[in-house]
Amino acid sequence: MSRIDGGLIDRTRTLTFRFDGRRYQGHPGDTLASALLANGVRLVGRSFKYHRPRGVLSAGSEEPNALVTLRSGARAEPNTRATTAELFDGLEAASQNRWPTVGFDLLAANDLSAPLLTAGFYYKTFMWPRGWWEKLYEPAIRRAAGLGRLSMEPDPDAYDKGFLHPDLLVVGGGAAGLAAALTAGRAGAQVVLADEDFRLGGRLLAERHALDDAPAADWVRSVEAELAGLPNVRMLTRATVFGAYDHGVYGVVERVSDHLARPGGAVRQTLWRITAKRTVLAAGATERHIPFRDNDRPGIMLAGAMRAYANRWAVAPKGRVAVFTNNDDGHRTAADLVARGVPVMAVIDPREDAPNLGGYPTWTGAVVTGARGRRGLSAIEVVRNGRPEWVECASLGVSGGWNPNVALASHHRGRPQWSEEHLAFLPGAELPPGMVVAGAAAGNGTTHAALRDGAMKARDALEELGVRAAAIDLPEAEDRPDRPAAYWHVPDRGRAWVDFQNDVTVKDIRLAHKENMRPVEQLKRWTTLGMATDQGKTANVTALAVMAELTGKGIPQTGTTIFRPPYTPVALSVLGGGDTGAHFRPTRLTPTHEWAKAQGAEFVEVGQWMRAQYFPKDGETHWRQSVNREAMAVRKSIGLCDVTTLGKIDVQGAEAGEFLNRVYSNTMATLKVGRVRYGLMLREDGVAYDDGTCARLGEDHYVITTTTANAGLVFRNMEFARQCLWPDLDVQLISATDAWAQIAVAGPQSRTLLSRIVDDADLSNEAFPFMACAAVTVCGGLRARLFRISFSGELAYEIAVPARYGNALMERLMHRGQDLGVTPYGTEALGVLRIEKGHAVAAEINGQTTAAMLGLARMVSEKKDSIGAVMSRRAGLVEDRRRLVGLRPVDPSRQVVAGAHLFTAGAEQRTETDQGWVTSSCFSPHLGSYIAMGFLEDGQDRLGEIVVAADPLAGTDIEAKVVSPHFVDPEGERLRD
Amino acid sequence: MLIPHPLLGPRDAQEFTYLGDARLLERPDPAAENAEARFCDYVYLRDNPAGVHRELWFHEHGDRSWLVVTRDTVTHEILGAELAADVKGAGA
After folding, report:
1. Which DSSP symbol is given to A406?
2. Tell me, what CATH number does B76's domain have?
3. In chain B, which residue's Cα lies nearest the Cα of A684?
4. How many other CB atoms are there within 10 angstroms of residue A494's CB atom?
5. Are A868 and A685 contacting, i.e. CB atoms less than 8 angstroms apart?
6. What is the pTM of this model?
7. What positions belong to coiled-coil segments (chain B) (predicted)?
8. Which of A247, A499, A569, A944 places its Cα 20 to 30 Å from the Cα of A713?
């Protein structure tokens, strides 16, 4: 091909680009495909299965052949359609699925083995030996077949998300879409107009005919200018509406900077989530092929595309040109080419009443039966008056009629309806709510009809919203129907391609039919027709017609194809919308985070929280040294730990106590003001799911804590209980987790330290005993809550202040406690201390264990109802005899790992002889030994017995003595001191 | 999807947490003779109709209301939404 006059390209500027390493030039306004064609490049890729040479087939997003890898390095994007890639200066593209080059591809040998590679070949051929599938067949097939390859590097670009809520979404900026947007825009409605092209106008840009007496592009420009001036209209170009979701929600990808060499400061793409009250689908139509033998030669393209390249991109087809069409639209291509000075050898038309639009010969009753030219078309075989004849031809336009783009209309499973008049599927009656279809997408494909249909459908849609839109003046335009003939493919014994991208031929469909893969869905899976990046946009209906011919049924009786999102491929990166890496989810920082960072703490992710894991000191070379030191400080003097992350729920109301009685398995209503009680929660199925403390601050006021992990879940479940089970109770809940910073002050010196900061406090054992709580002030008037509770087993408190004072409180406590040896400790030491004390956490309360297993059977009150109480008494749970025990390895230097299973010493280790499992394990600096906790069958009766903890993954069997889980101070004297 | 919140108007479904069958409002009487069997049904058996379904949604990233939403599970059409506390209060 070469450039001719005219077109919508900017010849004042030249862009240089590379394809497979060679330099070419094009102009702004070009796509990669138009620029390649203008440079005479016809061979752009290799086919999926047979590695057949392929050229550009279409001029839009339906392209099955011209898939390239755009850009390089981490920005390389495989399977980009050259027909939609906007040309920019410095663009680099490479062909795919060839080795070593697109011109000379060794894997083209596949084409010679075509008889072996027919429909379903991999189901039939690679059956055995079974083990070879994964190791040999699949990797080999994947290497030989396929499309482009990913860079395997992280995506360096930025992405964004946006939300729009228009009255009317117009999908497609062609004749119908522009008329719809203008109608609605002038009426003052909020309008979003989205088009996948980089230029509005749709098919109008590809045609020569006039609107009134001016070129169509002039009308497009004037409408665009008017819409741009309307504040209530938003135009999105380079924006593909890829899915119609529930309740008027549409997914749209806007390619913000894909047309630039570098995104600069801009994001690469934006994911728009558009919630529209009404939608006009004006997505146009896609041309279909007429399969004949070797119809996939480079140089054969859709007739409408050939016309678009000539009219919009000023690219004339190469060499001798012919058109093969079964409808009048193909003749338009010939007429346009002639008008642009490109001679057309003939229009080959099987219809006896084929027209002639002037300037070229029409061969009526004629068909194309073959093509020659491996890397580029050189001749076609034409059967005319029953006589076959090879004629020289380098460019053939083919038109098998137009398929309305009904994809979005069927995203809610609404079936398209066959129209015998259009010989195409039209949108059916069941459209996504709020959607109407206009223009060529609705079968109203002449320019005249599309303009009027778009305007009318917009007015109707707005009327439903109570908006009256005035009729707008629309230009007069061509109104010639296509008059397609039901001529679907040229009968032949050779290979005639239906689906170019998946290398599916008429023969494959015939074979599938013979093998009884007759429902369309099976045909699709057996042959892979309609799959991959183009989703069969140019193939599906033709395949259905071939199948209908084979079954002898009509097309609608044979089946329909419906579509799922996305309309065209969507990059996963844009779906993530930039929420990757650190932005994948929110990070929550504790109130003392800055202080802990300054102390050089190592942090650990706990759900969304970042918590201090341990605080290494100079000279400590292993985390265990730090953790041992921190844990021992708590046992010997005093430690501080930020425990803000525990969930806090404020419970207030006259019946708060009764409410808590129902959500906790134990009794809370009898708790005295100023006291704290440990509480256990069950699921309604009777299994334990969370524990914490419940403090009564006032007659009608409790504050409870949950585990860090379950803070959200417990709150949700308590709201469920409040609203859905007992809305008659006078009780209100609010999450206070983020409102209060809470610091554990633990160790024998904790009372001394707290006395220094709590105002006017009598913290003596008599005045403020174990499990006391009170509202106090600290540091001269700051409101605070003090709880005498202990997770470590030592004399300990937790003190809460408004969150913004958390960091300051930590600094004050550290400062005032210097002489007492105050030591900050992290989650590791916290874990050691609680295992030494035998406290259960998520490892023990893991959603499979009962109160009885945890040794908390008495905490399920029988005097009252509570969530889970009834089901906790069922036989299946009551009969579980495993109980929480402590384990001390016989050799104290050997670790009993969590997850190991417990067996009687000497017993064979099988599932049937399994006696339980290890839940938590650590090194206890206090005992100078590894210790562990776990569930053991009849554990409470086996204290002193040596059992085996087996870890078959590591291949270790460790002997351990069964002991009480309370390794430290089993009588609990220290915490009551 | 959009949920027509009875207090806040249409809200995006992403603000909600889904629970399922609204029969969970009908917690059995723990004192009933066959309480265990009834709780077993309550905990484990759910209707899962293709069609109109009353189900519980929690406005977790909103005002924390539990809603009873009537939804056609085939078309996703939402036929109504009420506060669960109102439904329960009305003795449903």
Report:
1. -
2. 3.30.2270.10
3. B43
4. 14
5. yes
6. 0.89
7. none
8. A247
